[in-house]
Amino acid sequence: VVTSCTRVVALYFARSAELAGVRSEIISVPQQLTSLQLWEEIVKRHPRLAAIQDQVVFAVRQEYVLLGDQLLVLQSGDEVAIIPPISGG
Questions:
Q1: Is the dihedral of CA 49, 53, 56, 59 positive or negative?
Q2: CA 8 centroid distance within chain
Q3: Where in this protein does the record say Glycyl adenylate is found (predicted)?
Q4: Tens digits of per-residue pLDDT, 23-68?
Q5: Which of 10, 49, 75, 81 has the fewest Cβ atoms nearer than 10 Å?
């Protein structure tokens, strides 16, 4: 099944911005994919992000999403925030 692609805005915070080397960018991804597949698309662009995979959380349209098999249906212009673990306590 071929799904159409859509352009979303990836926002990188704290450690993820350091690893990616950018704070935000527009990326083209399949319109329907799981949160884990979305992470894999981002890691293809920024392989250093793989270092934080076990701790990272997404926020899609400002709602938290854990990496896994949750299906996302993305709309053009959606914001996908990559939020690393918050250090300290």
A1: positive
A2: 10
A3: 89
A4: 999 999 999 999 999 999 999 999 999 999 999 999 999 999 989 9
A5: 75
Q: Would the pLDDT of 88 be above 80?
A: no
CA distance 25 to 28: 10
| Separation between Cα atoms, residue 30 and residue 52, nearest integer Å | 23
Cβ-count burial 2-26 (b if 16+ within 10 Å, e if not): eeeebebebbbeebbeebbeeeeee
Q: Determine contact, residues 69/34, Cβ cutoff 8 Å.
A: yes
- pTM given for the model: 0.89
Q: Are 68 and 35 in contact (CB under 8 A)?
A: yes
Pairwise CA distance, residues 2 & 19, whole Å: 31
